[in-house]
Specification:
Helix content: 25-40%
Distance between the termini: 18 Å
Strand order of the largest sheet: 1-4-2-3
Structural class: alpha/beta
Number of helices: 5
Largest sheet: 4 strands, parallel
Oligomer: single chain
Length: about 120
């Protein structure tokens, strides 16, 4: 079983990244596909547009956002199973564009993929 890392898409790729998966619904501004060095863009795993707009990256809404996003993830077995399979095969880096490294959907997704009691993802 591999480990999950979280990285901003703007951070340079590293040999320790393993599989690099962009988990944003919208392509990040100012970065080329070559510079992103992706293995996969899994935009279907990102929060719904309505949830993303409601959250608005407001840390005061993060706990409720986490609950709502986890509910969305529960209905997205195809994508969550795909990430779990990648993790079984080695290390996985979830890439996101948000500026806040602690209150973002990639952190919630990593927790969800690892399951209850899982190791905290490295940021």
């Amino acid at each position: 079983m591999g480990k999950i890392q979280l990285k901003r898409i703007y951070d340079p790729p590293s040999p320790t990244d393993g599989q690099r998966v962009l988990v944003d619904r919208i392509w990040p501004r100012g970065i080329s596909k070559e510079a992103a060095a992706l293995d996969l863009w899994l935009k279907e795993i990102a929060p719904s547009s309505a949830l993303r707009k409601w959250f608005g990256h407001d840390p005061g809404r993060f706990n409720e956002f986490r609950d709502r996003y986890r509910h969305e993830l529960a209905g997205n077995a195809r994508c969550t199973d795909m990430l779990r399979q990648l993790l079984r095969n080695g290390d996985l880096t979830l890439l996101y564009a948000a500026r806040d490294k602690s209150c973002n959907h990639a952190r919630v997704l990593a927790e969800y993929i690892q399951g209850a009691g899982g190791e905290e993802p490295r940021a």
